[in-house]
Write a sequence for this structure.
């Protein structure tokens, strides 16, 4: 996520939408506003976070959430709804909402939850994994205090892996997160960039200290070992 985070707001009530849009823009976010399912489908591939009102005129919000999840498995989703029953809440979380707010809610709380979701999903400004430190605002990486020269894509790949050390990422997930949903090539590009990144990290794929190949699955960044004195 290199540009400013883009938020897709699916909300049919123009007054609510305008209020949230102004507040989000003041915080430096770009907004796509969709009033219905058709508009939502147009913006969904391009967004970094989805804020979804469940009560929409032309489409069932829960069904839309299910479709969004199928298209963008890792997209952070905040559900907004007037429905206050436990069944709807549990159901939304089960089919992939990350957070949930019941109307009426305060705009300040909405902004705080959006920002918390973005942080959780894309990492804060500084990420430390053992001897690696990433400054995601300055796009700098150091290894044991020594700066590594990474290309923009190498940096994005490393940052993605580093947001969740130990977590396995499929090539498809890395493609969507690093290259974006509009990328036209094959997932071989992921292997190429992992190899370039390994060279810069001085990592040996047969005895990795950083990036491990999970055969038939994808890649992960190893969690720091406790017995290694260079890590914490
Ligand atoms: Ca509504």
């Amino acid at each position: 996520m290199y540009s400013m985070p883009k938020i897709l707001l699916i909300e049919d009530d123009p007054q609510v939408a305008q209020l949230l849009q102004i507040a989000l823009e003041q915080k430096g976010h770009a907004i796509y506003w969709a009033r219905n399912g058709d508009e939502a489908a147009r913006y969904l591939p391009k967004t970094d976070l989805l804020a979804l009102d469940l009560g929409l005129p032309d489409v069932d919000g829960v069904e839309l959430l299910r479709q969004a999840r199928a298209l963008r498995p890792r997209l952070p989703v905040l559900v907004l709804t007037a429905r206050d029953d436990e069944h709807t809440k549990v159901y939304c979380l089960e089919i992939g909402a990350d957070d949930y707010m019941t109307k009426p809610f305060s705009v300040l709380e909405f902004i705080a939850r959006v920002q918390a979701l973005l942080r959780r999903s894309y990492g804060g400004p500084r990420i430390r994994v053992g001897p690696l430190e990433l400054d995601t605002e300055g796009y700098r990486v150091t290894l044991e205090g020594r700066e590594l020269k990474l290309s923009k894509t190498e940096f994005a790949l490393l940052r993605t892996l580093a947001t969740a050390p130990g977590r396995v990422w499929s090539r498809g997930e890395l493609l969507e997160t690093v290259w974006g949903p509009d990328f036209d090539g094959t997932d071989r590009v992921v292997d190429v960039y992992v190899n370039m990144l390994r060279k810069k990290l001085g990592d040996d794929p047969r005895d990795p200290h950083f990036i491990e190949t999970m055969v038939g699955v994808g890649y992960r960044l190893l969690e720091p070992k406790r017995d290694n004195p260079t890590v914490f």
